[in-house]
Design a protein that fits this description.
This protein is mainly α. The protein has helices spanning about 10-25, 35-60, 65-95, 100-125, 130-135, and strands at about 1-5, 5-10. A hairpin with a 3-residue loop joins strand 1 (about 1-5) and strand 2. Helix 1 (about 10-25) runs antiparallel to helix 4 (about 100-125) and helix 3 runs antiparallel to helix 4 (about 100-125). The two termini are about 30 Å apart. Residues about 140 have low confidence and may be disordered.
């Protein structure tokens, strides 16, 4: 799951999401000034937070149950923020700030991240089950 100079795919997609979000929410032709400090700022903050949570989770190499839990919690935060972002997209569409074509593309960027994060979290939960339950991890038989 790596691309762009060895970066994880999910990190690349999250960066693309941030760039797309900043480009569109800073466009005065789409989002009037009256929503810049409400809807736009929240969308920008969520997008940046999603990227932050993914990078922070990826920097944890669990050796203890607490570290494994922290990594899983950061992944969950990223998922929750994706869901929140999708709701803000719905609001932007319903308020007429973006058209359906833009909404579908932006939704696709967000759901790609959400799906990758969910899969990553599920695999990590299985991988770190022993750490989380306080058991010694089983060593592979030779």
């Amino acid at each position: 799951m790596q691309s762009r100079h060895g970066e994880l795919t999910i990190v690349c997609k999250a960066k693309d999401h941030v760039n797309h979000t900043l480009t569109l929410t800073n466009n005065a032709n789409l989002f009037p000034k009256k929503v810049r400090f409400t809807l736009c700022q929240r969308m920008q903050n969520l997008s940046i937070q999603i990227l932050h949570d993914i990078i922070a989770a990826n920097e944890i190499y669990p050796q203890t149950g607490g570290e494994a839990k922290r990594r899983l919690d950061l992944q969950k935060e990223g998922l929750t923020n994706c869901k929140g972002f999708l709701n803000f997209l719905d609001i932007a569409l319903e308020q007429g700030y973006i058209d359906i074509r833009r909404c579908e593309y932006w939704t696709g960027l967000t759901t790609d991240i959400k799906n990758l994060a969910a899969s990553w979290r599920k695999k990590d939960a299985e991988r770190f089950r022993a750490l989380l339950t306080g058991q010694q991890p089983q060593t592979p038989r030779r």
